[in-house]
Amino acid sequence: MSIKTSAYIHGDTIEFSTIDYSAEKGPFWYVVCDDTPTAPDRPLPLAHALYEFERAAKQAAEDGDGEVVELRQCTAEDLEWAGVVPADYDD
Q1: Strand boundaries in the chain, DSSP class E
Q2: Which of 10, 32, 44, 89 has the fewest CB atoms in 10 Å of its CB?
């Protein structure tokens, strides 16, 4: 089983997110800010990625510093580096 849990602190709020990679099929995504993945050790299924993208884009807009936020699909090498084995992985 390949599970990763993260906690995000936003002011007085803490959000927890858990992904069971053995139950998720790809593709997986990174949220990328100015060409740097925000959590390269945690590739995201699309639903999680869209939520994180929206959160990062809102923060970038509030900061007003011109930061570019985008979604990028993970490669096989990205998944290997992160130690993620998706449910649809074939040996």
Answers
A1: 3-10, 13-20, 28-33, 36-37, 44-45, 69-73
A2: 10
In-domain check, residue 9: no
Q: What is the pLDDT of residues 12-53, one digit of tens each?
A: 888 888 888 888 888 999 999 999 999 899 999 999 999 999
Whole-model pTM: value is 0.80
How many domains is the chain built from?
1
Phi, psi (deg, nearest 5) at residue 46: -55, -45
Q: How many CB atoms lie within 10 A of CB 19?
A: 20
Residues sharing a CB contact under 8 Å with residue 29, sequence separation 6 or more, in sequence order: 43, 44, 45, 46, 49, 71, 72, 73, 74
